[in-house]
Structures are given as C-alpha cells and as structure tokens.
Amino acid sequence: MSRRFIAAAAQLGPIARDEPRRDVVARMVRLVEEARRRGVSWLVFPELALTTFFPRWFMERQSEVDRFFETRMPSADVQPLFDAARGAEIAFHLGFAEKVDDSGVERRFNTAILVDRAGRIVHKYRKVHLPGHRDHEPQRPFQHLEKRYFERGDLGFPVTTVEDCRAGVLICNDRRWPEAFRMLGLNGVEMVMAGYNTPRHYPLAPEHDRLQDFHNHLCLQAGAYQNGTYVVGAAKAGVEEGCELIGGSCVVAPTGEILAVAATLGDELVCAAVDLDRCAEIKRNIFNFAQHRQPDTYGLLTQGVGQL
Ligand code: CDV
Question: For an engineered disulfide with 111, which of 69, 98, 143, 146 has Cβ 3.0 to 4.6 Å away?
C-alpha cells in the first residue's frame, strides 16, 4: 500500500440488544463490499462494533454481561468479516468487548484491533479513559457503566507501522483527552482511528446536549492538527434501544480540516483521499516537536490528576 490511499469510516446505525453477531457482521460485510467498489484501503468500524452499547444497562449477573464479550478474535461469527476484508485487500479497525483469561484471572477490556490486508491482527489497544460510573444509578434515563464492566487498558498508547503508515487507536472518551492524542503524536502517529458511542443526552450536564456534535468534531479536529495526523472517527449512530447516539463520522486532515462527514445516522461509508506525506506540513512546521516542545516545563502533566 502506498502512502496515498482512500480511508473510510464505516459508520454503523443502531444495533438491537438481541441482534445476533452474525447479523451485525453481515451488515459490516456489506460495508466492506461497498468499500471495495469505492477503492478504500483502510476501513474504521466503531467502538464495541459487534453488539449494542451494553453499558447502558445495569446487569447483576456476570453471565448476562459476558454475552457481549469476545473470548476469541476472530470468532466463528466474526470470521466472515476477516475473510471479506482480506478478499477485498482492505485493512480495518474493529472495536469490541474483550474478555481474557490472565493466568486464571478473568479480565475485561474495551478493546480495538487493527487487521492488515492479509487478515493478520497487527495492533491492539485497550481503552484507558473509561467514562461513567460503577454503581447502578436508577435516576438516570440510561446507565453508563463502563467503569463497572471494564478495567482500564494496560497496553499504553501504542503506535504500529501498518503497511506504510504509523497507525494508532483511541476509543471514544479517549479522544476528548489531549494527553491521549499527544501520546500517539509523540510516537509519530500519522493516522488515528477513533470509534465512538456518544449519547446525545449527557445526564450530568443536559445543557450540553446541543453541543455533542460540536464537541466531537472539536476534539477530533484539534487532535489531528496538534499532532499532524489524519484522524478517522467512526460512530455507532442513531436511536439504539431508545438512546440517541450522535453520528458525525468523519475523516480529518492533519490541518484539522474535515475532508468527509457522514450524512446519515445509519450504516454509511464516509470516504476521503489520504496522503500521509501531508502530515509533515504540520510535523515539520508549527508543531515541530524537536524545535518547539518544552517538556521540562510540563511536569504537572504527570503529577496527579490536577485541580477541579
Ligand atoms: N463511549 C464513550 O466513551 N462515551 C462517552 C460519553 C459517555 C461522554 C464519550 O466520551 O463520548
């Protein structure tokens, strides 16, 4: 793959609570087929792309929660996605709930992987910034129990050379944190993939509901510009089990400009031409780290969480 190619967000519309994996995967395969027709080389599916956004429900029984987790990747249900992408020579990003057995201890993460055009898993990231709460809060119209169902990611913020691209991943809430973007930027990232499930309604500050689309693009565009990287943001969108999720999937250039944006809240491919050499326009100029960063003055960044 050259450094010029077409990248796309593969936005997904709502997924029902009882929608079988194989039906979701069939929808994803249709997007892969469309991507092939449109000459796409990189495809980015959303956070927790294989199921409904299950942290919106409080579930007492772990067995009920575990139905939404993958213990093997690819599983038999997901294999058709790997096969379709390999057949189309498309590399892809996939978010899913990951359950692992760590020397007899069960661990659960909100995870995303990159799969290269040969169908190999070449990169894994586990979400660091888990939003929401741990306990049932029945006064909310819906729960956000990521802190209950997942543990914090333990892989840092890796950047991997995939094909000819320095690639990195952030997952949903991570994209709002400049430190997370910067960790990738410091590792020379050229394309950041960020899947998300963002409810329009934020129960703690409902006055911000009208700003959800703006804040999404604000973070993706700032992260791109300040680190001289392309960003592909991929939403799970639309009204899912009564909860409205924003769309706005997009491809952002290293200048911070949005190159393409979703027009719907359903399954949709959002494609844009990428030229990775354009990252240097920013990395060699306004954000030339070697010339202009002053890390010895940034100590506070790693000394605790900061003041309210
Ligand atoms: N899935 C997420 O991480 N959602 C958060 C919401 C809860 C604020 C987000 O940052 O979009």
Answer: 98
The domain of 107 spans 4-302
Q: Determine, yes or no, domain membership for 100.
A: yes
Q: Is residue 308 part of a domain?
A: no
Distance 187 CA to ligand 1 centre (A): 25
Number of domains in the chain: 1
For this structure, is 99 an active site residue? no
Residues with CB under 6 A from ligand 1: 47, 131-132, 144, 172-173, 176, 196-198
> Ligand 1, closest atom to CA 196?
1
Closest Cα partner for 107 from 62, 141, 73? 62
Q: Which of 53, 54, 170, 196 to mutate to test the pocket of ligand 1 (most atoms within 8 A of CB)?
A: 196
Residue 165 placed within a domain: yes
- Give the alpha-carbon dihedral of 219, 220, 221, 223, to 10 degrees: 80
Say if residue 74 is preceded by a cis peptide, omega within 30 of 0. Answer: yes
- Would you call 271 a catalytic residue per the annotation? no
pTM: 0.98
The C-alpha atoms of residue 239 and residue 104 are separated, in whole angstroms, by 39
Is 284 a domain residue? yes
Tell me how far apart the alpha carbons of residues 202 and 240 are, in angstroms, rounded to a whole number. Answer: 15
**CA 131 / ligand 1 centre spacing (Å):** 6
CATH number at residue 234: 3.60.110.10
Q: Is 278 helix (H, G, I), strand (E, B) or coil?
A: helix
> How do the pLDDT tens digits run along the chain, 308 residues long?
789 999 999 999 999 999 999 999 999 999 999 999 999 999 999 999 999 999 999 999 999 999 999 999 999 999 999 999 999 999 999 999 999 999 999 999 999 999 999 999 999 999 999 999 999 999 999 999 999 999 999 999 999 999 899 999 999 999 999 999 999 999 999 999 999 999 999 999 999 999 999 999 999 999 999 999 999 999 999 999 999 999 999 999 999 999 999 999 999 999 999 999 999 999 999 999 999 999 999 999 999 999 98
